[in-house]
Amino acid sequence: METLTTEILVIGGGPGGTPLAMATASAGRQVVLVEAGSGLGGTCLFHGCVPSKIFREAAFFKYRAEKSATLGIQDLSGKVKLDWNAVLKRKESILSARSTAALANGNKISSLKIRFGTARFLNAQKAIVEGPQGSIKIEFEKAVIATGSVSRKLDVPGAQLSGVLTSEQLIATDHIPRSIVVIGGGPIGVELGQMFSMMGSRVSILEALPELLASVDQKLSSRLKILMEREGITVRTGVQIERIEEHQGLKRVFYSEAGKECFEEAEVVLTVVGRSPQVDSLGLENTQVRYASRGIEVDESLRTAEKNIWAVGDVTGQPMFAHWATAQAQALASAFLGRPTTFPRKELNSAVIFSHPEIGIVGLTEDAARKQGLDVGVAEYNYAVDARAQIADEPEGLLRIVYRRDDLTVIGVHALVEGAADLMGEAALAVSTKVKLSDLARTIHPHPTLTESFGVNALGALRTLT
Length: 466
Ligand SMILES: Cc1cc2nc3c(=O)[nH]c(=O)nc-3n(C[C@H](O)[C@H](O)[C@H](O)COP(=O)(O)OP(=O)(O)OC[C@H]3O[C@@H](n4cnc5c(N)ncnc54)[C@H](O)[C@@H]3O)c2cc1C
What we know:
Elements: E1 2-11, H1 17-26, E2 31-35, H2 42-46, H3 49-66, H4 84-107, E3 112-116, E4 118-121, E5 126-131, E6 134-145, E7 149-151, E8 164-165, H5 167-171, E9 179-183, H6 187-199, E10 202-207, H7 218-230, E11 234-237, E12 240-247, E13 250-257, E14 260-266, E15 268-271, E16 275-277, E17 291-292, E18 295-296, E19 309-311, H8 322-336, E20 350-353, E21 359-363, H9 366-371, E22 376-382, H10 387-391, E23 398-404, E24 410-416, H11 424-432, H12 437-442, H13 452-465
Parallel strand pairs: 1-2, 1-6, 2-3, 6-19, 8-15, 9-10, 9-15, 10-11
Antiparallel strand pairs: 4-5, 5-6, 7-16, 12-13, 13-14, 17-18, 20-21, 21-24, 22-23, 23-24
Helix pairs in contact: 1-8, 3-4, 3-6
Bound molecules: flavin-adenine dinucleotide (FAD).
């Protein structure tokens, strides 16, 4: 059996574990990175962010091509068709290039050892890895758990039927289903539901809460719901899922809505009802690490209840985003290297939901700010009047900038517009550096771009305040 002794053991090679291992090893620390899968990249690369956005890109191009007449382009070839095998091939080639590059970068760092296999703690100083090359015993000074999350199981009769899929399984599908019932109207359900609808599936979304996308500014989520329904997606909110049954080759999802039993049926059912921290088989019972269903408990410097074990990313619970896992990892690496460190704060996190139009989120919503007792105003801008949105023929959307009334500091930016994803960098900088409405108004934004909406909106709000 191979035995390794190391300063830092990192378990999990996703957007949390990989940058942490590379940053600490690049600075000369002895690091072992263990990954249970066959490549580096984690859920984000193999089953999440990257493949789903490759599909979204194809779906959006198809949608744009079908709409091209509005831009003055005649489609002489007839109906636009999406070649699913070509999309899958493109996905495989991007995934393989990215994981190969990550492994090559890791292998260049002499003090980093990468091993494939499943790690389990024997105690707070020792772990065992079972992998394709046999068992490896690892003795460590510090360990970081970055094992991510897995799809939460839907607990209703029929959830085990074949054709009832998790997001991982739908992303691996070998064909575009004719119809899909999506159970769960959170970010993953909305993204996958809408992109498969654009690719030609008939889609229904069933959500237990009264609104889609519960954590999003409600004005934006309600507007998106209307747009989705206009595109032909059935959306039912405030419903309770009862059971799933086979019916003539289709799946029937029975649910109750206002006390009445209803059903939606489709070729496949996608269940996206949240994600659970991946703690199974980690041997946490052999350590003092504490965890609950929402994730491993960590303090503000990401240390668990076991003093030489830390945790980053999805395994620590919400928010579950790749950039959040990486931000935590980079902060922890900096702390391990003895550098001055500020750990990421949830209220400064940014997020994008790749719906159509996209939703970008940074900082507090109006509701969340008011719940915290803050006296806030909201500057609102309708993209129907925006030059860039009109040029792109994507004029549906709304920008809401939340600011403190006392000193006009920007504390939240929420945008629903196609292109919102690329607006969030400026928004994140604005919120994290506490800019004022006047800073946004004074900034010279290039024309015609969507970024102008920040300046125009801030200026408009300032005019109403003076
Ligand atoms: C469909 C979908 C779409 C998404 N889209 C986005 C998006 O657009 N943007 C975004 O920011 N986020 C997105 N996410 C979320 C994102 O994928 C996660 O937040 C991110 O991957 C978390 O990183 P992590 O390093 O914490 O965990 P993971 O990426 O899950 O990595 C954990 C790794 O640990 C390994 N592991 C587990 N147990 C062990 C063990 N015992 N020993 C060794 N290795 C182990 C796993 O194999 C895995 O590779 C999406 C998720 C899904 C499911």
